[in-house]
Amino acid sequence: MNEAKRQLVQSWLTKAQRDLASACVLATSNPPLLDTAIYHCQQAAEKAVKGFLVFCDQEFERVHDVEVLIRAAVPYSVGFSAWIEAGRLLTPYARIFRYPGLIVQPTREQFS
Predict the structure, then answer these.
(1) Under 8 Å CB-to-CB from 36, ≥6 apart: which residues?
(2) Domain span at residue 44?
């Protein structure tokens, strides 16, 4: 792997790790900010899979659909197939709590 690709993969994974760390901080704050935390969980998954796809030289569209991204990763690592349902569940959190609407806060069960 050349240095430019290594840095790009690393930057995707670093962003994913920071989103996950942000989710943990927000979920354990007082009071918990679960709406923002759950968004960061979705973002962490999305960026981690995108980092893997970059590693595999697989191009992907600019989407927030974690399930679609996971399905694109399966041909490179069949273990990703175990995460398809999680991707389906995470995908709506890219937007559902980000903007004003009827649902303001996810439940603890949704966050878990």
Answers:
(1) 26, 97
(2) 3-111
